[in-house]
């Protein structure tokens, strides 16, 4: 059948297909799509029941999602996610074992440290794989050409922009960290012009202020470079250029290692680009 011939046989092709169709997906299917792209390992090894429970949908929705993409059922779709893991050097089981740590002969403190180091390593590896050269170049061009760079983030993402503000300052690049204790962030952002740019960072559950500020800037033609965790993130919708940063976690505490590395790469690359002007 022609439909079978056109089915994606690897994760990258599947991801492209989902992103191309995201605007047309019904609400529940879009919810599954967002979960699948953000949690591919769980899709690969979970059961339909466990995945549905975690994603907040009915198991039948998984079948509908798979069929919507042209697969005959969820198992066929799941095989693409499993093949993705087979192509990687470290197996899913090995990563889980490393994350939990070999507790034999180790103190609890060392087990916790090993867990966070493993999560950080996994985050860096994943982000390194996901960042595309042309996207990176576009982001650097936008930021290097900006008169002022506005930095937007809240909650756990805030340390990233705080360090970027510090580094930009040291590099003599004009920037504005949005952190007003007086509650005048919208007023500060009202000064932003199309000749400026913004970096916005947020992960699920998304900080409403960051989402709203990024959307307001985009509506005024201020280019936004976003770092977020899914193509279905509301932050990605406002961004001219965006990066997917799916961080690993240990015991429910997510790493920021990959995002920090990406943020500092952007910061230093912008400085290097400006030197060539």
Automatic annotation (TrEMBL):
Please list the GO biological process terms of this entry: carbohydrate derivative metabolic process
Q: Which UniProt keywords are present, listed alphabetically?
A: DNA-binding, Transcription, Transcription regulation
Which residue range or ranges hold the SIS domain? Answer: 139-276
Matching entries from InterPro entries are given as:
Homeodomain-like_sf, HTH_RpiR, RpiR-like, RpiR-like_SIS, SIS_dom, SIS_dom_sf, WH-like_DNA-bd_sf
Key word Transmembrane helix present: no
Q: Does the keyword DNA-binding apply?
A: yes
CDD domains annotated for this entry? SIS_RpiR
Q: Name one GO molecular function term.
A: DNA binding
Where does the record place the HTH rpiR-type domain?
Answer: 12-88
User: Pfam families given for it?
Assistant: HTH_6, SIS
Q: What is this protein called?
A: RpiR family transcriptional regulator
Q: Which organism does this record belong to?
A: Phyllobacterium bourgognense
């Amino acid at each position: 059948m022609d439909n079978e011939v056109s089915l994606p046989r690897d994760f990258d092709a599947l991801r492209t297909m989902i992103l191309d169709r995201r605007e047309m997906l019904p609400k529940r299917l879009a919810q599954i799509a967002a979960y699948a792209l953000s949690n591919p390992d769980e899709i690969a090894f979970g059961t339909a029941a466990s995945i549905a429970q975690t994603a907040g949908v009915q198991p039948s929705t998984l079948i509908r999602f798979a069929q919507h993409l042209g697969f005959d059922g969820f198992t066929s779709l799941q095989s693409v996610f499993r093949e993705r893991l087979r192509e990687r050097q470290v197996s899913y089981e090995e990563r889980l074992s490393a994350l939990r740590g070999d507790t034999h002969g180790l103190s609890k403190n060392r087990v916790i440290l090993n867990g966070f180091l493993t999560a950080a390593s996994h985050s860096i590896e994943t982000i390194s794989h996901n960042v595309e050269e042309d996207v990176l170049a576009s982001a650097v061009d936008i930021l290097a050409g900006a008169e002022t760079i506005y930095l937007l983030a809240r909650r756990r993402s805030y340390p990233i922009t705080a360090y970027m503000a510090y580094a930009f300052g040291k590099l003599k690049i004009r920037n504005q960290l949005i952190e007003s204790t007086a509650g005048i962030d919208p007023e500060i952002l009202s000064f932003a012009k199309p000749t400026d740019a913004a970096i916005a960072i947020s992960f699920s559950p998304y900080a409403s202020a960051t989402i709203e500020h990024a959307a307001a800037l985009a509506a005024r033609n201020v280019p936004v470079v976003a770092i977020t965790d899914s193509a279905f993130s509301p932050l990605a919708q406002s961004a001219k250029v965006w990066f997917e940063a799916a961080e690993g976690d240990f015991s429910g505490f997510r790493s920021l290692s990959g995002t920090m590395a990406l943020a500092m790469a952007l910061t230093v690359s912008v400085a290097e680009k400006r030197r060539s002007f």
